């Protein structure tokens, strides 16, 4: 989500596109809302199952399936949270990599510009030139 926010701030055309799509949709949900909506359902289902378990007697035939469903949803929610965390870390690493690459490219350009007025030297073997 942070990546989308950065894109909206740095690319006005992208922000305008999102606004137009939101205005055209029947429920007017933002992109953030669309992305969060499925994830928000897991806690709701977990709470629902917990409430159902509170009112389901211990010997009832539905109690075990409810407990199994709750365990499965909790496990899946943990996996989703872990995947989200990993995706955010990867996006941050990619952003840092681009930033470092841009800086290095800028330094190479600056070095090339300063050397065009003087003697050009090979980086690999400066004595051959």
Question: What's the structural blueprint in terms of helices and strands?
Answer:
Elements: H1 2-10, H2 12-24, H3 31-55, H4 63-115
Helix pairs in contact: 1-2, 3-4
As for the number of domains, it is 1
Rg over CA atoms, rounded to whole Å, is: 27 Å
CATH architecture name = Up-down Bundle
Straight-line N-to-C gap: 51 Å
What do we call the CATH topology? Dbl Homology Domain, Chain A
Structural class: mainly alpha
* Element pattern in H and E: HHHH
In the CATH hierarchy, what is the superfamily? Dbl homology (DH) domain
Could you estimate the helical fraction of the residues in percent?
over 70%
- How many H/I helical runs? 4
InterPro entries: ARHGEF10/ARHGEF17, DBL_dom_sf, DH_dom
GO biological process, one term: actin cytoskeleton organization
Organism: Carassius auratus (Goldfish)
GO molecular function: guanyl-nucleotide exchange factor activity
Molecular structure report:
- The protein has 129 residues and is mostly helical.
- The chain has one domain (2-111): Dbl Homology Domain, Chain A (Up-down Bundle).
- The chain has helices at 2-10, 12-24, 31-55, 63-115.
- Helix 1 (2-10) packs across helix 2 (12-24) and helix 3 (31-55) runs antiparallel to helix 4.
- The longest helix has 53 residues, at 63-115.
- The chain is elongated.
Short description:
Residues 1-83 form the DH domain. By secondary structure, the chain is mainly alpha-helical. It has one domain (2-111): Dbl Homology Domain, Chain A, CATH 1.20.900.10.
